[in-house]
């Protein structure tokens, strides 16, 4: 199972502002994210992020959205949304049971940190924005470990956004 982490991050390491908004993400970057999700047919997101952007971003059309939750009784009537109680390993089991071979990790910060702590991120596609937020949702939540990244390639996107791709490990 291949996990590709795709965050959009400010220069000072935040994926959202104090209100949880990331309305600064450009349409070019959002299009690249959507293309990757369409290729993967699966995206992983935390329950708070899913609820905040439900109907706006999630569920992603043409893919299954796996939502990590602490609520063991939460279920969905939508076949494109799968609630998974637990953490990163439980999501990996669910993806595998569904026959998935690749998924996009979309956050939020604590979910990013869970996957990093479990050493389950294979690639990182990181879009860095020329923006200082000062506070908000940290890229990796409360995770304080290390990830070793090997640069593969980078792209300049419009509006000063730099998109870099890394192998993890």
Tell me about this structure.
Helices cover 24% and strands 32% of the residues. With 169 residues, the chain is of the alpha/beta class. The protein has one domain: Dihydrofolate Reductase, subunit A (3-Layer(aba) Sandwich), CATH 3.40.430.10. The strands form two sheets. Strands 1, 2, 4, 5, 6, 7, 8, 10 and 11 form a nine-stranded mixed β-sheet that branches. A two-stranded antiparallel sheet has the order 3-9. Strand 10 and strand 11 form a beta hairpin.
Concise structural overview:
The chain is α/β, with parallel strands linked by helices. It has a single domain (2-168), classed as Dihydrofolate Reductase, subunit A (3-Layer(aba) Sandwich), CATH 3.40.430.10. It contains 4 helices and 11 strands.
Helix content: 10-25%
Give the SSE string: EEEHEHEEHEHEEEE
The name of the CATH topology is Dihydrofolate Reductase, subunit A
How many helices? 4
The number of strands is 11
Gross CATH architecture: 3-Layer(aba) Sandwich
The assigned structural class equals: alpha/beta
The CA-CA distance between the termini, in Å, is: 15 Å
Largest sheet: 9 strands, mixed
- What's the CATH class, please? Alpha Beta
The CATH homologous superfamily is named: Dihydrofolate Reductase, subunit A
Number of domains: 1
What is the averaged pLDDT score? 96
The unreliable regions are: none
Radius of gyration: 15 Å
């Amino acid at each position: 199972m291949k996990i590709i982490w795709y965050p959009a991050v400010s220069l000072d390491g935040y994926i959202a502002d104090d209100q949880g908004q990331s309305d600064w993400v450009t349409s070019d970057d959002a299009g690249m994210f959507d293309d990757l999700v369409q290729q993967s047919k699966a995206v992983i997101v935390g329950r708070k992020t899913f609820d905040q952007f439900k109907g706006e971003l999630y569920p992603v059309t043409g893919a299954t959205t796996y939502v990590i939750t602490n609520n063991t009784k939460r279920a969905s009537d939508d076949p494109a949304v799968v609630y998974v109680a637990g953490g990163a390993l439980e999501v990996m089991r669910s993806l595998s049971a569904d026959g998935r071979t690749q998924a996009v990790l979309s956050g939020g910060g604590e979910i990013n940190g869970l996957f990093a702590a479990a050493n389950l991120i294979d690639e990182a596609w990181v879009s860095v924005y020329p923006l200082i937020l000062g506070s908000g949702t940290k890229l990796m939540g409360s995770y304080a470990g290390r990830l070793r990244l090997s640069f593969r390639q980078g792209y300049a996107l419009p509006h000063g956004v730099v998109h870099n791709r890394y192998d993890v490990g």
